[in-house]
Amino acid sequence: MEKKQVPVRTVVAVGIGAALVFVLMRFVAIPSGIPNTNLNLACAILTVFAAIFGPLAGFLIGFIGHTLTDLTWGGVWWSWVIADAVYGLIIGLFVKVYGIEDGAFRLTKGVILNIVQILANALAWVAVAPTLDVLVYQEPAKKVYLQGLMAAGLNSAVVLILGTILAAGYSRTKVQAGSLKVE
User: Fold this and answer.
1) Closest CA to 119 of 95, 90, 99, 96
2) DSSP secondary structure letter of residue 176
3) CATH classification of 8-171 is 1.10.1760.20, yes or no?
């Protein structure tokens, strides 16, 4: 039985992506008015990396980047770390559909990415994170579900704008298959 290895490209992407997520979450977070919930540009980076490199990279970037951020704040809030990892995993599951690496990311694929990211944000932040907060940390449900709704809304908006721009810009640097012609 042959072991399947993770490509070096994916390992490098996880390292760079986790570092970018950490820096953006830690140093470029804008308070939302809801305690412990920020407008965060890191979700756009996580989305684009997961949409390019797949579910394993998305999961690990979300997990490592969020864990490092929490460690520098004094303690890891595992429910939110897991939610970021789940979000990255879900985005990465549809890597072939987006066509970013193929240079085929246009309006239709952008709409698909944004439908997926809105659903993934809802699942991660309205279901996973607050439910784990209640079950693991015995947090008040009303508080954590409000935080989750705010996080899902802010993340969805950031990805809709910044994530789509980044994905489209990166995709335009790729040559589409069949676009070259013999003269």
Assistant:
1) 90
2) P
3) yes
Q: What is the CA radius of gyration of the chain?
A: 17
Residue boundaries of the structural domains of the chain:
8-171
Residues listed for the chain: 183
Residue type at 12 in one-letter notation: V
Q: Provide the residue-wise pLDDT of the chain in tens; the chain has 183 residues.
A: 667 787 899 999 999 999 999 999 999 989 998 988 999 999 999 999 999 999 999 999 999 999 999 999 989 999 999 999 999 999 999 999 999 999 999 999 999 999 999 999 999 999 999 999 999 999 999 999 999 999 999 999 999 999 999 999 999 998 766 555 666
Residue 17 tokens read as: 């992506």
User: CB–CB of 69/25 below 8 Å?
Assistant: yes
- Measured between its terminal Cα atoms, the distance across the chain in Å is 47
Q: Is the pTM of this model over 0.85?
A: yes
Spatial separation of the C-alpha atoms in residues 77 and 70, rounded to whole Å: 7
The tally of CA atoms less than 13 A away on the side-chain side of residue 99 is 14
Instruction: Give the closest residue to 36 by CA, choosing from 146, 124, 163.
Output: 146
Residue 18 to residues 118, 123, 150, Cα–Cα distance (Å): 21, 21, 23
> Structure tokens of 170?
């990166």
- Lookup: tokens for 126: 């309205």
